[in-house]
Amino acid sequence: MLLPEKIRLLNVAIGSAGGGQLLHQSRFEFRYLDASLSQPAVGLLMPPLKLTYEDSALFPVMDQNLPEGDLFMRLRQMFPKQPLTAMHLLALAGANGIGRLGFSIPGVAPAPHAPAITRAQLLSTAFTPEVFDELVRAYLSTGAGVAGMQPKIMVPVRATIPIPTVIVKAASVAYPGLAANEFLCLKAASAAGIQTPGFDLSDDGQMLLVDRFDIDADGERIGFEDVASIMGLRVRDTLSDRKYHGSYERIAEALKMLRLPEADLQRFFEQVAFTVMVSNGDGHLKNFGVLYGDANDVRLAPMFDVVTTRIYRYARLQGGADLEDQTLALKLFAGKGQTRTYPLTEELLRFGRDVCRVAAPQSVLVRIADAMSDTLAQARQDDRIPPNMLADMARLWDSGMAYGRPMQS
Q1: pLDDT value at position 322?
Q2: Ordered DSSP codes for 25-37
Q3: What are the pLDDT digits (tens) for 358-397?
Q4: How far is the C-alpha of 66 from the C-alpha of 387, rounded, in Å?
Q5: Which of 93, 268, 351, 381 could form a disulfide with 145 if both were Cys (CB 3.0 to 4.6 A apart)?
């Protein structure tokens, strides 16, 4: 796909029932093309109560899916002599980004649909960096609308639904065993009764397939916004650590403002408790979100992008000693004096009772601990799981399962 040097206007589709235009001169401007108040909203913070919105930066609901990390670098290599502004990146995402927004350049035909590849083919593919490179090249034109730092690409697996419906996440040299790691986390979450997307691990354990949860069985797209977006934050084109600013209590407050069903607050507690118990230090603002049809039909999204991060080490300074990440991505509670330190059991229970209105939070922790234990037992019989990684995860999960044991009086 050849991109214009400058893109000042994009058509914006909102599912199959509405649309508008995005303009960029010195500022960004979004215009609804229909004056009807009943049309779908481009975003929860941008209802059609007024027809035009302006901002100095890209609107958060559009900013949330701009590619970053590995995918952005691949796009940079693909278009080495062209600018890759936010408008260019949205044009590349086209109609395939997470959520129900689609973008197109007026008068320019969209990229042709890539041929579907079956789930069985993906699962049986022997992973090498070169094989994944080929997969990305084949589907980059239809799979560029997913954010995140790790290597990933979206692919179509159903011939009847030409848009990509599966996210393929690859192994990483920097984070060995990452696909198997996330697979075990999702498996434990699902076993604990926490809603997750559908997922599969490839036969060699090197690629994770995750079903998109923003597309229904008929291929209709569902509105999705991550928590950073519903808080009105942009994290990609500013300091990336903005997604690590805040607390899980503030997320709960944002969900309450959206008037989610009471059961969804309890589901959010399950997600936070699971994040703590499996030592996921990357549960930031972009890794929680909501799905919606309209402003009266907002619900918590399934748990996604959950990994036991504490098994990986990093160098704080070049040449410095390797360190283990010992903190959460966000503080548990809001307010001065709060830290990202993993909470005590009584603190996690207080969060469940007082913030998320869970009547019996201890039973949630017990349920999660039991699921973690069962998942570890099954993983020891699974040849796809790297033994060294499993040993590291078992050590941390054993500590996390202590949250589900009765507290000593």
Answers
A1: 55
A2: SSSEEEEES---T
A3: 999 999 999 999 999 999 999 999 999 999 999 999 999 9
A4: 35
A5: 93
Residues comprising the chain, all counted: 409
Q: Tell me which amino acid residue 117 is.
A: I
pLDDT of residue 403: 97
Q: Smallest Cα–Cα separation from 207: which of 126, 280, 133?
A: 126
3 state SS of 74: helix
What is the Cα Rg of the chain in Å? 21
93: helix, strand or coil? helix
How many C-beta neighbours within 10 Å does residue 331 have?
Answer: 21
Whether 226 contacts 287, CB under 8 Å: yes
Q: Buried b vs exposed e over 148-181: b needs ≥16 C-beta within 10 Å? A: bebbbbbbbbeeebbbbbbbbbbbbeebebbbbb
Q: Which letter, b or e, does each residue of 283-296 get, where b requires 16 or more Cβ atoms within 10 Å of its Cβ?
A: bbbbbbbbbbeeee
Residue listed under structure tokens 């590619």 = 67
Q: Helices 262-277 & 387-400, crossing angle to 10 degrees? A: 120
CA 277 to chain centroid = 19
d(CA 265, CA 270): 9
Residues of the chain with pLDDT under 70: 1-2, 236-241, 314-324, 407-409
Give residue 295's pLDDT: 73
The confidence score (pLDDT) of residue 158 equals 85
Read off the tokens for 131. 């094989």
pTM: 0.93
* pLDDT recorded at residue 409: 44
Give CA–CA dist 9/3, Å, rounded: 13
Residue 207, helix vs strand vs coil: strand
Q: Show the tokens assigned to 367.
A: 């349920």
**Count of other CB atoms within 10 angstroms of residue 231:** 18
Q: How far apart are the first and last CA of the chain?
A: 65
How far lies 306's CA from each of 102, 113, 132, 190, 260, in Å? 27, 30, 22, 12, 22
Residue 149 is predicted with a pLDDT of 72
Tokens describing residue 100: 């129900």
User: How far is the C-alpha of 150 from the C-alpha of 103, rounded, in Å?
Assistant: 24
Instruction: Give CA–CA dist 202/183, Å, rounded.
Output: 10
Helices and strands (H and E) in the chain: how many: 12, 14
The answer for residues whose C-beta is within 8 angstroms of residue 366's C-beta and 6 or more apart is 404
